[in-house]
Design a protein that fits this description.
- The protein is mainly alpha-helical and about 80 residues long.
- It contains 2 helices and no strands.
- Helix 1 (about 10-35) packs antiparallel against helix 2 (about 40-65).
Length: about 80
């Protein structure tokens, strides 16, 4: 994981919301392709979506949560 963001919490919150929206959009794209593409094309799309979501998680969300753990609504206290 890269260094902690040195940004204001308000900016980190906005980035978090946009990153989560991007993940949702990518998931919708995958779902749209499920029944409409060949199995080979679907698997290619699934891999791309998975890699993209992984990058968003590790390069954006994990870094934000390291700086502002209270923004991680999945973290249990």
């Amino acid at each position: 994981m890269q260094g902690v963001f040195m940004i204001e919490k308000e900016c980190a919150t906005e980035i978090r919301e946009l990153a989560l929206k991007a993940i949702s959009e990518l998931t919708q794209a995958l779902n749209a392709s499920r029944k409409r593409c060949s199995e080979e094309d679907y698997e290619r799309i699934r891999k791309g979506v998975g890699l993209s979501i992984g990058k968003i998680q590790t390069d954006l969300l994990d870094v934000i949560y390291a700086a502002y753990p209270e923004l991680d609504d999945l973290k249990k206290d």
